[in-house]
Design a protein that fits this description.
This protein is an alpha/beta fold and 205 residues long. The chain is 46% helix and 15% strand. Strands 3-2-1-4-5 form a five-stranded mixed β-sheet, with helices on both faces.
């Protein structure tokens, strides 16, 4: 934990049964947004937890397995591309987070959410800006969400190998945009996102 003072000001209590929540996949043009909720076991500490974006893919995979084996409870949930198009990405992210918390087999007393807003939940919830670097439970959630999303992209890559999903993970890279223009949008693309919408419109003419 980098800033204990900030956490104390937020009312963080290390002895409280709390869940950390984070998401992965808000920015990509394809697929669901994933969210994870994790309640860590203080009796089984996990070393090396950090913001998932700062870890190598190999390290994330190792930590993912350790978190799943040692956590008091965890749940990974999602909101689909269709739900993102219907609700917008922010509301779909909140929906995925709510589903992750509701899917926990142990009900936490409090929920700590990475970012600057929280979904509506049955228990007290507090957002923490850059929480994935401050709180281990949020770091753990960020790792589970990211690994789950990467696995989803690998499966999509096997189904649509010409798009390069395993490499760019659905973000709007040059390779992805070129494939979109040549092959069109897959059923998994987010139609409400401007680059996808533009390709669909241009191919309709």
């Amino acid at each position: 934990m980098n800033d204990l003072r900030t956490l104390k000001q937020l009312g963080f209590d290390a002895n409280e049964l709390a869940a950390g929540v984070d998401e992965a996949g808000r920015g990509p043009l394809v697929g669901p947004v994933m969210a994870a909720a994790v309640i860590l076991d203080p009796q089984q500490p996990i070393s090396g937890l950090a913001d998932s974006k700062k870890l190598s893919a190999q390290k994330r995979e190792l930590l993912d397995a350790e978190i799943r084996s040692k956590a008091v409870a965890f749940c990974v949930a999602q909101a689909s591309a269709q739900e993102i198009d219907e609700l917008n990405i922010l509301q779909a992210t909140m929906l995925a987070m709510t589903r992750a918390v509701q899917g926990l087999q142990v009900v936490p007393k409090r929920v700590w959410v990475d970012g600057n807003r929280v979904p509506k939940l049955a228990m007290p919830a507090q957002f923490v800006v850059k929480g994935d670097s401050l709180l281990d439970c949020i770091s753990a959630a960020s790792i589970l969400a990211k690994v789950s999303r990467d696995h989803w992209c690998a499966k999509l890559d096997a189904e649509f190998p010409l798009y390069g999903f395993a490499k760019h993970k659905g973000y709007g890279t040059k390779i992805h945009m070129q494939a979109l223009k040549v092959y069109g949008a897959t059923p998994w693309h987010r139609r409400s996102f401007a680059p996808v919408m533009a390709v669909i419109r241009s191919s309709a003419h």
